[in-house]
Amino acid sequence: MHTVWKGAISFGLVHVPVKMFSATEDKDISMKYIHKVCGSPISYVRRCPACDVDVNWEDISRGYEYEKGKYVLFEKEELEQLSANAEKTIKIIDFVDLKEIDPIYFQKTYYLAPDQAGGNAYQLLLEAMRDTGKIGIAKIAIRSKSSLAAIRVMEGCLAIETIFYPDEIRPISQVPNLPENVQVNDKELTMAKMLIEQLSTPFEPEKYTDDYREGLLHLIEQKVAGEEISLAPAKPETNVIDLMAALQASIEAVKPPVATDPGPAAAAPAKRTRKTAAKKAKAEDEAASAAGKTKKAGADHETVTPTVAVKPKPKRRTTTNPEAK
After folding, report:
1. Distance from first CA to last CA of the chain, Å, rounded?
2. DSSP class of 252
3. d(Cα 300, Cα 209) in Å, to the nearest integer?
4. pTM assigned to the model
5. For 179-215, what is each residue's pLDDT tens digit?
6. Lesser CB count within 10 Å: N end or C end of the chain?
7. How far apart are CA 42 and CA 31, in angstroms?
């Protein structure tokens, strides 16, 4: 890991030499702006619009615009002197409970490791904070920026998280269009709670992935390989009107599959089917046996079959009704 800061933790008269390492890394895929005509990357220059010339770093200072177009200038040495005392020390001001800090205050996390011969003092602070369950609120300056910070124990390591100052948090009263005096339907509230319960699970960070980054990496690999790219059209969004129906559909969607036991009632038809099949097979066997006996008997008496004379039926005499004519 790259060291981003070196200094000491100070609490009371105790100083703990430490090195700071970034605990997180940005996984965003970096892209450059390219000139479509020739394929060259676009370069950015520091240019003065008044003098119409490119400006070197040694000719640049920092300035604060106190009125439109009016600036007060600061040299690099002035700003460095302002933060010289704070840059090398993490001064713990108070110890508090972690649950007292709203997550909105947290910015970025760093790991702290003991530096030089500070191992004993480092371990002493770590175990004392672990046993008391407290975290330290401190002030720190990183790259000339002063910040509040929270020092806490993470497994066998001290971690420091920069946090916003209170005046950097915007008040909720500035948020527009927040609902006021809205009556929530009791049935909808009950179903919403049911949905939350069914979606509740222990936090497992490894199961969450950056779908956009994975899709972009796959797209880059396809383009590098020269494959033709075709993107599926985005699924049209539908406006949900019936909140109750949406809640019911959501609950049904997350319900686990239930294995049903057919029981004896479902087994009965199968039993009757087997009995019916057995009766049918027995009847067919009996019919086949009877047909065989008849055929055999006919063969034995084939030469002695008597001839029977059939007397013709007399013709029916018809009469005509003269009145019908």
Report:
1. 127
2. H
3. 89
4. 0.62
5. 888 898 999 899 999 999 988 999 898 888 888 888 8
6. C
7. 11
